[in-house]
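RETRY 2/3 - previous attempt timed out on the joint model. Re-submitting the same 1093-residue input unchanged.
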Amino acid sequence: MSEHYPVLIVIIPFIFALIVAFAGFIKPRLCCFLTISALILSLYSSIILLFQVFKTGCIEYRLSGWSPPWGICYNIDYLNSIIIVVVMIVGLMCAISSQKAVNRDLDQKKGAFYALFLLFITGLTGILATGDLFNLYVLLEITSISGYALIGTGNNKAAFASLKYLFMGTIGASFYLLGIGYLYISTGSLNMADIAAIIPELQQSKTIMFAFIFCMTGLFIKMGMFPMHGWLPNAYSDSHSATSTLVASLTTKVMLYVMIRLILNVFLPDYSFSKLNIDNIMVWFATVVIICGSFLALSQKNLKYMLSYIIITEVGYIAGGFWLGNRLGMTGAILHILNDALMTMCLFLSSANFIYVLKNDSFKNFKDIFLKMPFSAAGFVIGGASIIGVPPTCGFFSKWYLLSAAQEAGHYEFFSALIFSSLICCILFFRIIEQGFFSEDDHENNVTKFNEAPVSMIIPLGITVLLLIAAGIYSGDIITNFIDHAIPDIIT
Amino acid sequence: MKIIGIITILLSGSIMIYSTLDFPEWGDPLSPANTHLSVYYIENSMPDTSVPNIVTAILADYRSYDTMFETTVIFAAGLACFLLLRNFRKKKKEYSLYRHIPTGVTLKIKNSADLADDTKLFQRIDSTWVPFDLVTRTASGLIVPFIQIFALYVIAHGHHSPGGGFQGGVIFGAAFILFAISYSLRESLKIISEKTAVILSCVGVMIYAGTGLLCLLFGSNFLNYGSLAQILFTDPVSARSLAILFVEIGVGLAVAGVMIWLYYNISSSGKYNQGL
Amino acid sequence: MDFFVILLMLLGALFFTGGSIGIIRFPDFFTRLHPAGKLDTMGLLFTMASCSLYNVNDFNLNNFLVSLKIIFIVAFIFITSPTATHAIADAGLRAGLVPWTKKR
Amino acid sequence: MIWQIDVIILVMVIIIAIGVISIKNLLSVGILFGAYSFMMCLLWAIMGAVDVAFTEASVGAGVSTVFLIAAIFRTSRGSKD
Amino acid sequence: MDNYLFFIVSKFNYWGVMILIMIGIYAIISKQNLIKKIIGMNIFQTAIILFYISIGSKKNASIPILHHLNEHTQKINPDDFVNPLPHVLMLTAIVVSVATLGVALSLAIKIYQQFGTLEENIINNKIAADNNRQSVIDRL
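RETRY 2/3 succeeded.
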């Protein structure tokens, strides 16, 4: 059985999604329990997979037994095994945290909600694990369709935001498909490793260049790069808080992973960096993204809108750090994918707690939040500190790598943009903390009561805070054992 | 907005047409796409799986993992539609409408709690405009069984002719949709209720995934049908052919169920009281 | 044999052309349904008959089965096409379209 | 594969597509979109993709037209542009 | 002259695809009605399917179905059959497009239930008015 773990991480949530959809019509109380047990099982198998990769190196799994260029294969290597673990952790925490809010708001549709939740995780895991370009598209669509549905269940503006997301998402996915078509017409293959073997002969071909451009356009739309970010803030902040945690912390990160995957393992760094010569343009682009995202975040009045714009700046961090093209930058980018998933989850979990109690996330309502909800507010502060980059938390380490990479590559504009956005984040978070600690009026006549969110929403937040600090402390181990092997040797 | 649209499409359109200049010519048998992978499929699909339709062989065997998730996509669409639209709250109506079938007169009856829904002469309807047309009903009643038989033929004959699980499932679902349009949503819900449609689709996807898991239990990779030869008492090649049929049946069930479910939800906007 | 095939095909094409001209030339909804429903069915009958005749040119069981399927298609068209025309006309009448008369 | 027929049908497909996005009555849009799908299906059948053409004939021209009309029936029928 | 004809014949299918993609994108960008946008999205997807099918076509080749009885013995010539791989991929893509259509239509119905219209600019105005009212309440 031990050789089947690569497929089990995808299949367990998938099978359980079917069972949950079934159970939703027969015994709705079981749904949440089934979801959590499925996620625990797949987290267990992903951790075992992580240790297998640690011991033996890359694992190739042939689905339906055909060898790779003809059949579909799964490649678990140093890059994706660790991201899979993070995805599973985020999914588990969101599932535990969501059950109260779901019970309250979506009583009879629980089965469908949790089934789509599990299908979302299935799609993301499949995207991470797969070694076939078209299989990636199919799983991308599973993720997107379940994501549209999950986002559509929110307040009364959610359906409109979700429809906008659907248009942009479909354009993005179709551009990606067009890019694969260009690759297929010039190489005749769909397997990543096979294409990577053919591409060095075709370096002069215009078709390959346009394939690269279309794939990247599609992925930029999907990950919410700055000019194409129009769908992101509304979709994340109008949706139900149980789903926005999951969707916001994972979608953009996995799309960034796909970009890294395509450049490192399909188009090859040699072609992408030295042949096309667009890395300088991309770093400048990322700089613009970071600065614009920071300013837009500064102008928001609601917590979730602000967090959505922070996600846009983080996308700029990772994309810019990766396109710096040196080893330090790539290390920082990959480490920041892991850290950012955890940090975003921490912030969104605490905002979900606030919304569960306060029913609103406008900044006006955050008076005396430290007295009312001490645990959630503490989690929020630590998440914010991690976004800013305060040393014991993990955000500091990846930002350090990005800064030193920018300095090494001589991109001082990116360097200063990073510093600048950290300062803006300081202002953003201290504004809320100030609102929560020092509210001037109404202390006497309006006695604030202790009114914390339920325990099932506090525990995931606590675990996430611990994970933030642990990821900070063990970041050296993660880099030496996994990320260093993931980056090819030609990049120095 | 119009000007922005026109500028965008002119720019990107010229870029895209420029990008086609490097393509191999249309229909060239020697282009890379036609010589690299596809040659293997055309030459080996018959000895490997004994399925004459190469598309079915690739769809359900070489790339069966894609097809499993393709079925899942449509299942997810059904779930999504249900989650977004389904409205369980029932509005209390103080009257109900009945139609006298021979004359077509509609009656509005208050306090109709103890009346039966359907008798030979009277039929319960949901709103005053629901049409009744004997010709359409009779003709569609005549056609629907044939469509269903054709759907089964398409599913079962997918090995030898164009067709397969997905097309057959859609046709099967379309037969029910025709029934629901020409009669009414109320009568089609009596034959396939919402719960039945959902369970049908769940079971369909489960058959596909279950076939894959069975392969895991017999010690080979996921969806490697060759190992099923032990329980089908045949050689691995025929086992693949049989397993493809099995999987196609699952896809057909799932797609038919989801199509019916989607139609119910969209046509009644989630209230299940009146159809198209 | 070939003569009959060509003749039937031409007849079918004639009916289709007449139907198309009728759809353009007739004055209102209900009269347009008349060529759309009738002539298309007739034209389809002739073209399908010619196809099935052409198919059994060299007679064996396989070709005969294909021809039989084509005949089945014609049979189903004969059931569904008038029904569809009837349903459309019925819907038009319910929607309140007034039939055209020469006087106005 | 006869390229003359292919050209004719491709031009018709493009004309129908322009018509679909410029007509104001949404119900006509639904019906015309069915015609678009059917033309597309013919195009694929000419190129030898019988399975895909069959799928498009049953999905695009059949079921999705019904969905589209059902959705238009449940919402509004007119469009401003 | 013959050269130009050859050039056009070898490329016109791809140009048709690009024109259809542009029509789809134009509908998504500049049409206000949501159903129109959904249809534009679908045109975009079918255009990409046409692109793939054009990749797989071959001159003088038949459909990719072998004959069951006599093909066991003699050698199969790959040039006689159309490339089947794009067909398989596009079957999946058609399914994805119909699934997306279903979800989009149900979202449109939900929007209509909430706002009473499908015109995007009117919905945007309504949302803006709602936000303004909210901020006025906040200020008070």
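Chains C and A do not touch (no CB pair under 8 Å). Closing ticket.
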